[in-house]
Design goal:
Elements: H1 4-19, H2 21-32, E1 37-40, H3 42-48, E2 55-60, H4 64-74, E3 77-79, E4 87-92, E5 95-101, E6 103-106, E7 115-118, H5 122-127, E8 137-139, E9 146-148, H6 153-159, E10 161-162, H7 168-174, H8 177-189, E11 192-193, H9 195-204, H10 213-224, H11 229-238, H12 242-245, H13 265-279, H14 288-296, H15 301-304, E12 306-307, E13 313-314, H16 318-332, H17 337-349, H18 363-373, H19 377-386, H20 393-417, H21 428-435, H22 441-457, H23 462-476
Parallel strand pairs: 2-5, 10-11
Antiparallel strand pairs: 1-2, 1-8, 3-4, 4-5, 6-7, 8-9, 12-13
Helix pairs in contact: 1-2, 1-3, 2-4, 7-9, 8-10, 8-11, 11-13, 13-14, 13-19, 14-17, 14-19, 16-17, 18-20, 22-23
C-alpha cells in the first residue's frame, strides 16, 4: 500500500520528468563528473502541487567552480555572480536553474550579510532550509530518482501548515527574513502558520531590523501581490513584524471612543485592501500600486486625530499628511521612484470625490479631477470605490450611484474634449510666436495661464486662446 509520502514522491518525479526533462540531462552531467545533484526546495513543493514552473533550484556536493564547469557545457548562458555564496545559475531554452553547494549559513548578531559555510551532506543542507514544505528534495543522480523528506514536509503540505525543520528560533536567528517568508507563504498558499512558529516570530520580531530594506521590500511586495494580502498584513501586525519596517499600519489601531463615533481605521484599511482586489480586473489584474495605495491611504489619521466637542473625532487633512508619510516610508523601503510618486498621489487624492456631493461639481472641477489623477485615473476610481466600507447598505448604494455618475461625466467629457490629453489650445512655440519672445520662464507662465483657461472653460479654439493670451500679456507689462 502506498503512503501519502510515496504518492507525493511519484507525483514530484513524474511532474519533473514531464515538464523539465532538461533537469535529468543536467543530473546526468553531474553524475558523469562524479557529483550528486538534487532538485530541492520550492520546485519540489510545486511539483507535488503539480504547478512546477521554469525556475528550478538544485543542491549538490560539487563546489561552485565545478558547477560552473558543468553548466558551461550544458547551458546556453551561465551566471556565477552568486558563487561566493555557493550558487551558480544557468539557462537552457526556457529553463533557468540555480545550483547551490550544500551549505549552512547564519547571520551574526549585528550583520546584514550571511556567513556561508559549505556542507558535506544533503541532510545538513535540508536542515538549514526555512520550512518543512521547502525542505524536501528529489535526488536525481541515484539509479532512479529518490524522494527525500526528512522533516515531514509532505504531511505539512497536505495539512496546509507552515513549520520549520528544526527549532524555529534557530531558523530565524540564521536568517531573520524567514519570519516574513513564513507570512508570505501563508498568504500565497493560504496555509496556517504553526503556533510554535508564531511564538518564535513574536519573540524575535526585532531581529528583522538587521535585514536590508531591499529584501524586506521584496517580501512585502510578494505578500501584497499574493491571493491573501489581507491575511498577510494581519499576521505582520499581530506578530510585531510590521512595527519594525511599516509601523504606520499598527498605529492605525486607534482607540475607538465609547460612542463609536468613528470606525476602526485598521480594520477599515484591511477591508479596503480586500475590496480593491475585487475591482482591479479593470487594470488588467493584480496591481502593486493600487494595493499599496489601499494599504497606505489612511496612515495620516493617527497624526491628525482631533476630538470634537460633544463627542466624535476628526482627521482633517489626513490625506495631505498621509501622502507625505507614504513617500517617506516607501523611500525607506527602497521602492521604485515611480511607484513612490504614484502611491503618494493616490493617497493625496483619495478623498477628493467626497467634495462631489450630489453632483454639484462644474465641468471645470471634473476636468481638474481628471488632470490631477493623470494616468492614475482608473486607479483612483477603484481606490475611491473600495474606500466605502459602511455597513449601511442604502448609504453604500448611494455613494456607488454618485460615483457612477461622476465616471459617466468624465467619460462624456473625455469623448468631447479628450480630457486624457488636457493641454492649452496653443503650443509653447505658438505662444512665443504670438508674444514675440524667446524661450524663458515667461513662456511657462503663459502656458500655465492657458492651461487654467482650458481647465475652466474647456477647449476655446486658437483664436479665442490668442485673444486671451494677448490680454494676459498686457497685464504682465
Amino acid at each position: 500500500m502506498k503512503t501519502p509520502n510515496d504518492a507525493a514522491a511519484q507525483l514530484a518525479i513524474t511532474t519533473l520528468t514531464q515538464r523539465a526533462p532538461a533537469a535529468l540531462e543536467l543530473a546526468a552531467a553531474f553524475k558523469a563528473a562524479g557529483f550528486k545533484l538534487a532538485l530541492v526546495g520550492g520546485p519540489v513543493r510545486d511539483a507535488i502541487l503539480a504547478r512546477l514552473g521554469n525556475d528550478l533550484d538544485f543542491t549538490t556536493d560539487a563546489h561552485p567552480k565545478d558547477c560552473e564547469k558543468i553548466l558551461k557545457k550544458w547551458a546556453d548562458a551561465v551566471w556565477s555572480i552568486g558563487a561566493a555564496f555557493g550558487t551558480v545559475a544557468g539557462k537552457k531554452d526556457e529553463i533557468t536553474v540555480e545550483i547551490t553547494t550544500y551549505r549552512s549559513e547564519n547571520y551574526k548578531v549585528d550583520s546584514r550579510k550571511p556567513e556561508v559555510v559549505f556542507g558535506e551532506s544533503i541532510e545538513g543542507d535540508l536542515l538549514r532550509r526555512d520550512f518543512t514544505i521547502n525542505a524536501m528534495a528529489v535526488e536525481l543522480t541515484t539509479q532512479t530518482p529518490t524522494f527525500i523528506d526528512l522533516f515531514n514536509g509532505v504531511a505539512d503540505l497536505q495539512n496546509k501548515v507552515i513549520k520549520t525543520p528544526g527549532k524555529a528560533e534557530d531558523s530565524f536567528s540564521d536568517d531573520p527574513l524567514r519570519m516574513m517568508r513564513a507570512v508570505r507563504f501563508s498568504s500565497q498558499l493560504n496555509f496556517t502558520i504553526d503556533a510554535t512558529v508564531i511564538t518564535a516570530i513574536k519573540s524575535m520580531a526585532s531581529r528583522l531590523s538587521i535585514i536590508s530594506a531591499e529584501r524586506i521590500r521584496d517580501e512585502l511586495t510578494k505578500i501584497l501581490m499574493s491571493d491573501q494580502p489581507k491575511a498577510g498584513i494581519y499576521l505582520l501586525t499581530e506578530t510585531g513584524l510590521a512595527e519594525i519596517f511599516l509601523p504606520e499600519i499598527p498605529k492605525l489601531k486607534l482607540e475607538i471612543d465609547e460612542h463609536h463615533h468613528h470606525k476602526d481605521v485598521y480594520e477599515h484599511t484591511l477591508t479596503v485592501l480586500d475590496q480593491v482586489i475585487a475591482l482591479e480586473n479593470r487594470l488588467g489584474g493584480a496591481n502593486l500600486t493600487l494595493r499599496l495605495a489601499a494599504l497606505m491611504h489612511d496612515i495620516g489619521k493617527p497624526k491628525t486625530k482631533e476630538l470634537i466637542a460633544g463627542g466624535g473625532v476628526s482627521f482633517h487633512h489626513h490625506e495631505v499628511v498621509g501622502a507625505r508619510m507614504t513617500k517617506e516610508r516607501l523611500r525607506a523601503l527602497r521602492f521604485d521612484n515611480q511607484i513612490i510618486k504614484d502611491v503618494a498621489q493616490l493617497v493625496f487624492l483619495h478623498l477628493r470625490f467626497h467634495g462631489y456631493g450630489l453632483g454639484e461639481w462644474t465641468d471645470s472641477a471634473v476636468r481638474r479631477y481628471v488632470r490631477d489623477a493623470g494616468q492614475l485615473l482608473t486607479h483612483l476610481h477603484l481606490l475611491t470605490r473600495a474606500d466605502c466600507t459602511t455597513r449601511n447598505q442604502k448609504k453604500a448604494e448611494g455613494l456607488a450611484k454618485t460615483y457612477d455618475q461622476l465616471e459617466q461625466r468624465i467619460q462624456l467629457l473625455m469623448q468631447q474634449e479628450e480630457l486624457d490629453k488636457i493641454r492649452p489650445d496653443l503650443t509653447g512655440e505658438e505662444i512665443m510666436a504670438i508674444l514675440g519672445i524667446k524661450p524663458s520662464p515667461m513662456v511657462g507662465r503663459a502656458y500655465d495661464y492657458l492651461l487654467e483657461l482650458r481647465l475652466e472653460d474647456g477647449p476655446v479654439g486658437k483664436d479665442k486662446a490668442k485673444e486671451e493670451l494677448l490680454n494676459w500679456w498686457k497685464e504682465q507689462k
